[in-house]
From TrEMBL:
<dbReference type="InterPro" id="IPR000620">
    <property type="entry name" value="EamA_dom"/>
</dbReference>
<comment type="similarity">
    <text>Belongs to the drug/metabolite transporter (DMT) superfamily. 10 TMS drug/metabolite exporter (DME) (TC 2.A.7.3) family.</text>
</comment>
<protein>
    <submittedName>
        <fullName>Permease of the drug/metabolite transporter (DMT) superfamily</fullName>
    </submittedName>
</protein>
<feature type="domain" description="EamA">
    <location>
        <begin position="171"/>
        <end position="301"/>
    </location>
</feature>
<feature type="transmembrane region" description="Helical">
    <location>
        <begin position="200"/>
        <end position="221"/>
    </location>
</feature>
<feature type="transmembrane region" description="Helical">
    <location>
        <begin position="56"/>
        <end position="75"/>
    </location>
</feature>
<feature type="transmembrane region" description="Helical">
    <location>
        <begin position="143"/>
        <end position="160"/>
    </location>
</feature>
<dbReference type="Pfam" id="PF00892">
    <property type="entry name" value="EamA"/>
</dbReference>
<feature type="transmembrane region" description="Helical">
    <location>
        <begin position="24"/>
        <end position="44"/>
    </location>
</feature>
<feature type="domain" description="EamA">
    <location>
        <begin position="26"/>
        <end position="156"/>
    </location>
</feature>
<keyword id="KW-1133">Transmembrane helix</keyword>
<feature type="transmembrane region" description="Helical">
    <location>
        <begin position="166"/>
        <end position="188"/>
    </location>
</feature>
<dbReference type="GO" id="GO:0016020">
    <property type="term" value="C:membrane"/>
</dbReference>
<dbReference type="InterPro" id="IPR037185">
    <property type="entry name" value="EmrE-like"/>
</dbReference>
<keyword id="KW-0812">Transmembrane</keyword>
<keyword id="KW-0472">Membrane</keyword>
<feature type="transmembrane region" description="Helical">
    <location>
        <begin position="233"/>
        <end position="252"/>
    </location>
</feature>
Length: 311
């Protein structure tokens, strides 16, 4: 959930073989990613009992910075960190910081499965905005896929309804959609940064800048809380976020994105089960039908892109 995976994650033994040879290994790593994503949603909701989203992001980013800097030093990659294109780094991290804060807010206000359904509009936002912001060629297939996906969001949100576990459109739904849009801008800016900047630089500035943003936003009123009771949940948020990216990246080293990406859609039924077991959240027909449309729009877009790449 979240931002683009870390392409510097090491390949497993057997590096150099065709990625297409190991789809089962990719599936196993994606199972790990799905568990991390679900655990991050649960731990974020539990940590919110003591912390606001800015405080949560500050502590998460500090832990992430320690881990990332330690890993870069251990791997001898700190020399790859360059203070170039700081403006684009800053813009990327503002988008990700805003998106992540909105995501943590939405998991405290909405059923977890609904949050993930909104989050899956992220690729559709990218498909629609990339021609405008990245100069990519406009394609009608992307427009059609986005239309299907956003129809699904209307089915999930049911803005014509006044209330209910799923129906209605309020601050929680706006936060979830805002998070997806923030993640879309993160993906696009990461794509631009990746043309000239190393992943070491991207990760370094991500954790350091977002820790600074969290400190400013959480401490502006002078009443910043330390997560004494929820510290284990905060640590789990940080490590699950890093673990999810590592698992996705490793999966991509075992099989191409056209195989790995659809596996990520299993996050939705998994978090729905977690929500039912842990919080008694019901599975309403509108959520199931709307989520199917969102995933269908993503699948059609992925299929069209795969055909263009093959042709």
């Amino acid at each position: 959930m979240t931002s683009a995976p870390d392409p510097t994650a090491p390949l497993a033994a057997g590096e150099g073989r065709s990625r297409d040879d190991r789809p089962l290994a990719a599936a196993a790593w994606m199972c790990g990613a799905l568990c991390c994503f679900s655990a991050m949603a649960v731990s974020g909701r539990e940590a919110a009992a003591e912390l606001d989203t800015f405080e949560l992001m500050f502590y998460r980013s500090v832990i992430g910075a320690v881990v990332v800097i330690g890993a870069l030093i251990f791997a001898g990659k700190m020399r790859e960190v360059r203070a170039r294109r700081l403006g684009l780094h800053l813009g990327r991290n503002i988008a990700h910081f805003a998106g992540q804060n909105l995501w943590f807010l939405s998991v405290t206000l909405l059923p977890l499965a609904q949050v993930f359904a909104y989050e899956f509009t992220n690729p559709l936002w990218v498909a629609m905005l990339a021609p405008l912001l990245l100069g990519e060629r406009f394609r009608w297939s992307r427009l059609g896929a986005a239309a299907i996906g956003f129809t699904g969001i209307l089915v999930v949100a049911q803005p014509w309804q006044a209330g209910g576990a799923v129906g209605g459109f309020g601050i929680g739904q706006l936060a979830a959609l805002g998070a997806a849009l923030g993640f879309a801008f993160t993906v696009m800016s990461t794509k631009v940064l990746g043309r000239t900047e190393s992943t070491a630089s991207i990760l370094f500035f991500m954790t350091v800048m977002q820790a600074a943003m969290g400190l400013v936003c959480a401490g502006w009123d002078g009443d910043m809380a330390f997560p004494a009771a929820t510290l284990p949940w905060v640590v789990l948020v940080a490590f699950c976020g890093l673990g999810a990216h590592f698992c996705v990246t490793t999966a991509l080293s075992k099989a191409p994105a056209s195989i790995v990406s659809p596996m990520e859609f299993a996050r939705l039924p998994m978090i729905a089960v977690v929500g039912m077991l842990m919080y008694g959240e019901p599975l309403e027909w509108s959520l199931v039908a709307g989520a199917a449309l969102v995933l269908g729009g993503n699948f059609l877009n992925l299929r069209a892109e795969r055909r263009r790449a093959a042709g």
